[in-house]
Amino acid sequence: MDALFKALADPTRRLLLDRLRERNGQTLRELCEPLGMARQSATQHLDVLAQANLVSVVRRGRERLHYLNPVPIQEVAERWISVFDAPRLQAISAIKNQAEEYAMTNETAAVPTYVYVTYIRASAEQVWQALTDADLTARYWGHANVSDWQPGSPWEHRRADGSGAIDVTGKVLVAEPPTKLVITFEESPDSSREPSVVTFEVEPHQDIVRLTVHHENLPNLEMHAGISLGWPAVIANLKSLLETGDTLPQSPWEMAPAHT
Length: 260
Hints:
It contains nine helices and ten strands. It is α+β, with helices and mostly antiparallel strands. It has two domains: 67 residues, Arc Repressor Mutant, subunit A (Orthogonal Bundle), CATH 1.10.10; 152 residues, Alpha-D-Glucose-1,6-Bisphosphate, Chain A, domain 4, CATH 3.30.530.20.
């Protein structure tokens, strides 16, 4: 908590957070230029924000994209403010405590992109197995993801209801166990449009891992809205399975969207 208040005490760092609130997923250059700030100075401030878990950094090639993480501020509100506004904030807290997740989006007119980050008490090998084992995916996703998971191989998203219906297909682009998996994601294989691409990055740290999901090259905002509800629900179920040995009592994707 001390790191959070230290980070928020500086007006420059609050300005950087405001910039990310206006447009998430900016590079260091994009954050610096409008503010007339030297890169070295901005980097130091962003490191403080990252240490306070207010900013998450995602690498894309040589660039680092910065995303705002509102969870720590919400936790402050729960600790000191919720007693004065219990009904509304308890509803928000219930969603946070059940899903233990947050989603960050960066949308442009041409290519809406979705980025999701969560932390799981598991090893990188366990998370990799959960992403690629057909029996495990059937338990937390309702679909078995079937492939040999070699680069260039196909993969299928088969319903686990006994029908064997395939809802999504694609190709494995990159497979680097247990830290990186990149696949195409094709709901309409006959479409002439390039498929969207999903990247799973698994970063171990002592007893936990950070799981980052990128879903890019989306065709429209409707699909973006759909996966913004879908990915948090699926990964929350994965997280519950790995941490408790069982999935959530109810399928999280069946919940009505949260009202804000």
